[in-house]
């Protein structure tokens, strides 16, 4: 077992190149996290898909915690990775998962997403209106948009949005922060959401937390801690993911002007283009941690019980065994069937919302800025560090030559 990490400078420069090498070398790669915990990477499409539905591979939080500690390498520190608000669907297996997901499914209806669309349009316009001829598409647009949408969806008062953006940023990319900072952020978020859920119970409004409180009070099934934790997962999962759908998708279009021109000429291609943004350079590089509850064999390799498994979605989506010319960006490619939203029972609950946000964002950006171009050469753009997310540090653009 190696104690060096695959998530090094080479990975930061070009994760696709690293994953291509790993897929070539074998179905699974033993490596370590940046904080010295032993993990196994699954990199090929079919294996990633199978691992996400294998009942012997668990996401249950308590078990994960034990396996984390057991797999700390010398000098390793697993506290940061374990510092989450845990009692929710993302960190549980059926039947707990089924029970925990149900309440959110009941409240997060298609009708609620439909009703949110005009608000997303307004928020997007509010962000775009003051922009000049040069701006950072991430900082000035892609980062605030989904944060404001998730704040609006959950019913978080607008004054608190910046604080929640900071907290969810620390939570989602634990591997890029100091473990103590991640623990503190998780505690602060928990305290905030506890107060918010109490406030919604006392004074319900037309928002997702109030709706979940109502479902919870009507048919029970989950306790208060679980309700708060479910609000947490929606907040965290709904933010940075969508940021990088917009950022990575726009980077791909700017790097491929012929595809950009094609999309401008035929806006009806947008839904397919969004699926290709998600496949080609999806915002989520890996699933959250899983572990083996008993020995499993992945792609012919035996992995003992008690091992941490990381499914590499970014890698699966570029697997040449699954996609013809997998490294080619093609907005007319279909059907994509990418794994960017996961697979199986944990399939992303927010996928319909993310798609609506993506549609609004790209439509507005393309309509408003017919001359949009990168303000720095595309190959100078840099990726942010971390294992879970795949997104740019900045995307400077100009609207005129
Ligand atoms: C482009 C944007 C998004 C991407 C790529 C994405 C990706 C994912 C992935 C890969 C998973 C499964 C993780 C795993 O199995 O380890 C997941 C789960 C989840 N996502 Fe998303 N997500 C996005 C946007 C959102 C939004 C906007 C929300 C909510 C407002 C959301 C809420 C959730 C929730 C609650 C789960 C947990 C589902 C479960 O465990 O049953 N996501 N997402």
UniProtKB/TrEMBL annotation:
The keyword Transcription regulation does not apply. GO terms for molecular function: heme binding; iron ion binding; monooxygenase activity; oxidoreductase activity, acting on paired donors, with incorporation or reduction of molecular oxygen. InterPro entries: Cyt_P450, Cyt_P450_B, Cyt_P450_CS, Cyt_P450_sf. PROSITE patterns: CYTOCHROME_P450. Keywords: Heme, Iron, Metal-binding, Monooxygenase, Oxidoreductase. It holds the Pfam family p450. SUPFAM superfamilies: Cytochrome P450 (SSF48264). Belongs to the cytochrome P450 family. This is Cytochrome P450.
